[in-house]
UniProtKB/TrEMBL annotation:
GO terms for biological process: salicylic acid biosynthetic process. Its EC number is 5.4.4.2. The keyword Magnesium does not apply. Residues 167-430 form the Chorismate-utilising enzyme C-terminal domain. NCBIfam families: isochor_syn. It is an enzyme of class 5 (isomerase). It catalyses: chorismate = isochorismate. This is isochorismate synthase.
Amino acid sequence: MSTLQTQDADAVPQPLVVRTVAIDDPGTLLDLLPVDAPLAWVRRGDGLVGWGEVLRFEVTGPDRFRAAESRWHDALAHAVVRDEVDLPGTGPVAFASFAFDEGSPAGGVVIVPRVVVGRRGATTWMTTIDLGARIGTVPSLDAAVRDRTPVAAPGAVTFTDGAVPADRWPDVIARGVAAIRAGEVDKVVLARDVIAHTTHPLDPRWVLDRLGDDYPSCWTFSVDGLLGATPELLVRSEKGLVTSRVLAGTIRRTGDDHADLARAAILAHSSKDLEEHEYAVSSVADALAPFCSSTNVPDVPFVLHLPNVLHLASDVTGVLSSAHPGSDAALTGLAPSSLALAAALHPTAAVCGTPTPVARALIARLEGMERGRYAGPVGWFGADGDGEWGIALRCAEVDPDNARRIRLFAGCGIVAASDPASELAESEAKLEPMRHALASD
Ligand SMILES: C=C(O[C@H]1C=CC=C(C(=O)O)[C@@H]1O)C(=O)O
């Protein structure tokens, strides 16, 4: 496991100096972002945006979540914090995203921004984070965003095959179905990628603005070149309450509202989709149970309507028990952080399969693609460990060496009754948000 941070490792670590103040309504959060390395976690206009980099930790391997958490604790150990708002997302905040696979070179990255602007309902705030300085006055937001360059369109976009060409992907699915019918696994989630080539280097804000407008019920995120709008919340942990929005089971929308209502009814009664969904819900409920004194797992999913697809969805909730046997929390008396919960939940059967270890091995054998940070946890956490982590879906990764090259991802849950051609069509529907967000019209 390796970690890396922007501070000189041999130097005496300087304390973080953090100040949060209430500010007047700054308008749309995403509109505040700079072109370089924007950070975002926004849904329905609420959430956090950030920029600048006070600290950066890079982690790899099976221990990547724990390593990230311990670096964050170290950074906070001597922090000087003045928080005049005291809400989730105020005070010290770090954004992070992690690879799906423990062996992935993508590992994970934690970024502590210089400036965070947040909104929760009618309350808006700004946090400034620095190293080693004394708490001073907070610069005005106007000063912080004065020299923003206008958002630029990417120009014409062409798409080429990713690791597995689209016309060969149904074979991959067929092999997954065969493995299920042979009794190897109950469910496996298989994914593909597509490469977008833009005329101009991508301005991430172009994509984020469009995703935020088109998919307001999703969590629009941006962390270190990974951009997307995910409908799936891996876990939110806030003052002892945990929530997870589990999705699995999908049908494409037609564009005709009347026809889509009929499709919603078909989805809600599809035994293939209900089976796919049940595996995902169980994986989340089972992973949360050891941490919770009580959980609420809906018996029946609801249908989530997105502009491109309809999903079967279940909101699983729980109350954290402060100390479960055998845990760090049992020793410390502290509840697990949101990142510890995300680590315990990942990978759910919405992105991996059932049983998890066999599905993971099957993905490695069949998929023919390095997932990178696609399908991994992405989100933010604060000094008290509370935070929100989505599953990085409906997303794309900008090539760090070529901002005209962007990798888009989509995957599908496969069960015994899955049809390869239908799954290819479903993956196209899941690519639609990013394809559209990249278009210049
Ligand atoms: C793996 C993806 O979606 C998951 C989440 C919702 C529905 C899914 C499905 O119906 O297959 C997938 O489990 C993806 O969008 O890349």
